[in-house]
Amino acid sequence: MDIKYQNQNYNINSKIEDGTLISTINGKNLNYKIEQINENSYYVWIDGKKNVAYVTNDKKSVFVWIDGVSFKFDYLDKEHLNDLENTNLNRQEVVAPMPGSVVKILVELGQQVQENQPLIIIEAMKMETTLYSQIAGKIKEINCKEKEQVDSDKVLIIIEKDI
Amino acid sequence: MSFIGPNWQSMKLLGSKVQSRITMIDAGIPVCPGMKGGSKDFDEFEKVALEIGLPVLVKASDGGGGKGMRIVWKLEELKPAVEAAMRESISAFGSDVIFLEKYIQSPRHIEFQIACDKYGNAIHLNERECSIQRRHQKIIEETPSAIMTPELRQKMGEIAVRVAKAANYDNIGTVEFLLDKDLNFYFLEVNARIQVEHPVTELTTGIDLVKMQVKIANGEKLQYSQSDIRQMGHALECRIYAEDPENNFFPSPGLINFFQEPKGIGIRYDNGVKQGYEVPIHYDPILAKLITYGANREESRIRMINALKENVILGAKTSTAFMIEVLKHPEYIKGNINTNFLQDYSINAKPSEPILDAALAIAGLKPELPKQRELANNNSSLQSNPWLEIGKWELY
What we know:
Helix content of chain A: under 10%
CATH topology of the largest domain in chain B: D-amino Acid Aminotransferase, Chain A, domain 1
Radius of gyration of chain B: 24 Å
Strand content of chain B: 15-25%
Structural class of chain B: alpha+beta
Helix content of chain B: 25-40%
Oligomer: heterodimer
Strand content of chain A: over 45%
Order of helices and strands of chain A: EEEEEEEEHEEEEEEEE
Strand order of the largest sheet of chain A: 1-2-3-4-5-6-7-8
Number of helices of chain B: 13
Structural class of chain A: mainly beta
Radius of gyration of chain A: 21 Å
Shape of chain A: elongated
Distance between the termini of chain B: 15 Å
CATH superfamily of the largest domain in chain B: ATP-grasp fold, B domain
Largest sheet of chain A: 8 strands, antiparallel, barrel
């Protein structure tokens, strides 16, 4: 399976055989002594130390907890992988990083923007985030309006470089 | 019908930082050295800056939220800082009135719990130290404070009670102070309500503060005198926030699909969530408060680290690993903390490579679900409704 974490892709193949977790991560082979406790937890030995690892998943992600550290790995399907490989530097889709509401749209349709220009302010859980342009170009689409509630990953603004 | 809380006149007074400051100065309470009111006169600013000593904090008299505030380290920076603060203040608050305060570097945030009845009786219930903060939000609180001595506690406690009386306060509240490196303390403000961190006081005094609030509102006299207030052991609180340490601690909403409550001796868990709960985007991201109690600071610290590791929450990210790193830091263990702790030590909660590898390997055991199927117990998310879950009632 393929997942994305901190802007890196990982290809993972794991199976349990005879009390050992055998895994290949981006080509690297790893083995761990393992015992299943129930559907969502395992004892796993890391560098000789016994830990309890908890794991769950939903439609979009796998969640893991080991020793107080919590991880969220997002599933990548094959189509999405191809998109990332062909990253289009002439076009940027500005997406909502978390579910929230649109506080203020700082640009207009057709406006020319520079790199690193503030575009839109989102608010969630009493915190405001400003999203910035990563390329210079023209605002091609604005897919939201002020005060609208948006979901995580919704494409809010599209910028295209003038060629 | 009675309001369970302080009288409105006191609340109104204490709601204004400038008004509180003036009231306390007049009552002889130590406040941050500085100007009593605002000014527009540059000569006066320079005179005050030299009197109180640099560095100084330029503040907008009608301001808030950090706007119109500038720190000035050298005298030649004073005029440009005042001019900039005036511009910001006019733009944000419509006022160009500025005042100066001494800038206390790396202070400790020490607050005192107070309780006053409607008959003029007032006591304090010892201090809480809340110096571990991010973006002015408290993360870890404890009592007793590692820096506190019985003499300093008595001095500050007496001042806290005088503050309450100067404001004609009743019911329970918190008097906040800043403590500098030389153990000088300065009144900051009063929080006219019960606070998130009140459990650490309850555990070390054995007193139920919420019950006390109700009794005072009910017209009863304070049942304790100052000499009745005990201090036993040490208590520590960590606020469990749904936030992502790998994304600048931004709120991390989501559906909690696995939840395990920490249990055991010396653990108190004030919880707002359960498995299946959808963390909403409309409120502050606090999920729960984890409080530990021990015979001393080391015991409660170790209990907290273990309890944090057992408090498994999956579906929304939490900054548990980060708090564990703070609690394990040598300077934290020594009790050398102040409000700049997180910046000074750039605590790094990036997972180590062996842990990341193991987590990825384990994740490999949960392949992507087929698109049509839904998780068995996940058809509807639960919203926590405290009215349906209220526990015991007591009759008076």
